[in-house]
Specification:
This protein is of the alpha+beta class. It has a 6-stranded antiparallel beta sheet with strand order 7-6-16-15-12-13, with no helix packed on it. A 5-stranded mixed beta sheet has the order 9-8-10-11-14, with no helix packed on it. A 3-stranded mixed beta sheet has the order 4-3-5. Strand 1 and strand 2 form a beta hairpin. Helix 1 runs antiparallel to helix 2 and helix 2 packs across helix 4.
Length: 218
């Protein structure tokens, strides 16, 4: 089930703006299959359940690197997102940010590739918590609070006139993450409900001003 949805996600990538470069030879789905297999093979039991690799190195032939040169970054992002989706489906946890790096292997023939997977623990050594911005970027929450607002010195700067200069913050407390409104003008909402302070669950939508952010934890 997880592998099927993983493949379907990558197939949508092929059908979209990246279709032309991937129409023949090496397909993203092949990389996805190998990557998800590495996740399954190298998962391990941790305190919070099954821990999956979160750092992946994909090595392609010079010919394929050249063919995909304009789309390497997009492919890396899609593979990382698909890895997160596979982990959610299979109930895996990560102990650090998911990263997919693509390299060139001078000895590889066209269509050949390798995928290696490893577990890279975040610096704080705790559970992984991230805030997904509207443009898809992810901001990891460390041991220090993550301040959201309009001021340039905020950790998450939002160019939204409805967002206060220091609007809200996310902070770790024990085994959870809380969002706290910092006395903002327009308030902070979690899944549409106004809050002063709220324990967040993975998948919660945090609204500040007119901007919607998604909290993810594993």
């Amino acid at each position: 089930m997880g592998l099927q949805q993983f493949e379907e996600r990558l197939e949508r990538l092929v059908e979209g703006t990246l279709a032309k470069p991937f129409r023949s030879n090496l397909q993203p789905v092949e990389i996805g299959r190998r990557l998800t297999r590495e996740m399954d093979l190298h998962r391990r039991v941790g305190v919070r359940g099954l821990i999956a690799p979160n750092a992946f190195a994909v090595t392609l032939s010079p010919a394929d690197v050249n063919r995909f040169s304009n789309f390497i970054d997009a492919l890396s992002r899609e593979l990382a997102d698909a890895a997160r989706e596979h982990a959610r489906i299979e109930g895996y946890s990560f102990v650090g940010p998911v990263e997919v790096e693509i390299f060139e292997g001078s000895n590889l023939k066209a269509g050949r590739f390798t995928v290696t997977a490893d577990v890279h623990e975040s610096e704080d050594g705790g559970f992984l918590a991230e805030l997904v911005l509207p443009d898809g970027r992810r901001v990891s929450l460390g041991s220090d609070p993550l301040v959201i607002g309009r001021l340039p010195e905020c950790d998450v700067v939002l160019p939204d006139s409805n967002v206060s200069r220091r609007h809200a913050e996310l902070s770790r407390k024990g085994d959870g993450v809380f969002v706290t409104d910092l006395g903002s003008t327009n308030g902070t909402r979690v899944n549409g409900t106004p809050v002063r302070e709220q324990l967040l669950a993975s998948g919660d939508e945090v609204s500040v001003g007119s901007t919607k952010l998604v909290f993810e934890m594993s």
